[in-house]
Amino acid sequence: MSTKLSRDFYARETLLVARDLLGMHLIHAGPEGEQVGRIVETEAYKGPHDLAAHSSRGRTKRTEVMFGPPGHAYVYLIYGFWNCLNIVTAAHGTPHAVLLRGLEPVKGITTTSHGPGLLCRALHIDRGLNGADLLGDTLWLEKPTRYRPPKVGRATRIGVDYAGDWAKKPWRFFDKDSPYVSTVSAAVRKRALAPDQGGVRAKLARK
């Protein structure tokens, strides 16, 4: 039986949460029914000192949820088009969060999900879910019954060059064996996901 992640899971040190989210399932019981994806890529943000974090700009209407209890969704819009889903972590009042960057389809996902905006589009996650309690019955995370341990890799975060030295932090975590990581090339992903290539997917994903 799958186990829904507890509040205590999210209340831990943010880098540990970011790493341990790999291999967990994200579930949205929304307009398309229950959709499920396996998390394969995350990024940690540790404001207010981390200049790459939205909370480095202080407590605002946009970032209020980041200062609240752990285990809630922080959903924001970028480029006027893409929604991005973050998981609020650490202690209440500490504005930390983990961005979900890549999902491996498990159930009910019919479009691409290798990128933070793409995975939200695929699971019909928008700002209407901002602040949602992840212990509820609409949007939640769980450890699947058949948990598949990831081969964890680390790298710097993406798109945060403006953050100076903070951009050099190796706070992006990913499953080396998954072709659904956002930085995997389109050619490698296509070969890895071809129906007759199932036996070599892991090998191709690492290239």
Indicate the topology:
Blueprint (H helix, E strand, L loop, with lengths): L2 E2 L2 H4 L3 H7 L4 E6 L2 E14 L26 E6 L3 E8 L6 E12 L8 H7 L16 E5 L8 E4 L16 E4 L10 H8 L7 H5 L2
Antiparallel strand pairs: 1-7, 2-3, 2-7, 3-6, 3-9, 4-5, 5-6, 8-9
Description:
The protein has a single domain, classed as 3-methyladenine DNA Glycosylase, Chain A, CATH 3.10.300. It has five helices and nine strands; from the N terminus they run βααβββββαβββαα. A hairpin with a 6-residue loop joins β5 (82-89) and β6 (96-107). By secondary structure, the chain is α+β, with helices and mostly antiparallel strands. Strands 1, 2, 3, 4, 5, 6, 7, 8 and 9 form a nine-stranded antiparallel β-sheet that branches. The chain has helices spanning 7-10, 14-20, 116-122, 186-193, 201-205; strands spanning 3-4, 25-30, 33-46, 73-78, 82-89, 96-107, 139-143, 152-155, 172-175. Keywords: DNA damage, DNA repair, Hydrolase. It is an enzyme of class 3 (hydrolase). Its EC number is 3.2.2.-.
Label this structure with key terms.
alpha+beta; 207 residues; globular; 3-methyladenine DNA Glycosylase, Chain A; disordered C terminus
In which range does the helix fraction lie?
A: 10-25%
Count of helix runs: 5
The biggest beta sheet reads: 9 strands, antiparallel
In terms of per-residue confidence, which ranges show pLDDT below 50 for 5 or more consecutive residues? Answer: 200-207
CATH class value: Alpha Beta
- The share of residues in extended strands comes to 25-35%
**How would you sum up the global shape?**
globular
| Number of E-type strands | 9
- Between the first and last Cα atoms, what is the distance in angstroms? 34 Å
Mean pLDDT: 93
Structural class: alpha+beta
CATH architecture designation: Roll
Q: What fold name goes in the CATH topology slot? A: 3-methyladenine DNA Glycosylase, Chain A
Gyration radius, rounded:
16 Å
How many domains comprise the coordinates?
1
Per CATH, the superfamily is: Methylpurine-DNA glycosylase (MPG)
Order of helix and strand elements from N to C terminus: EHHEEEEEHEEEHH
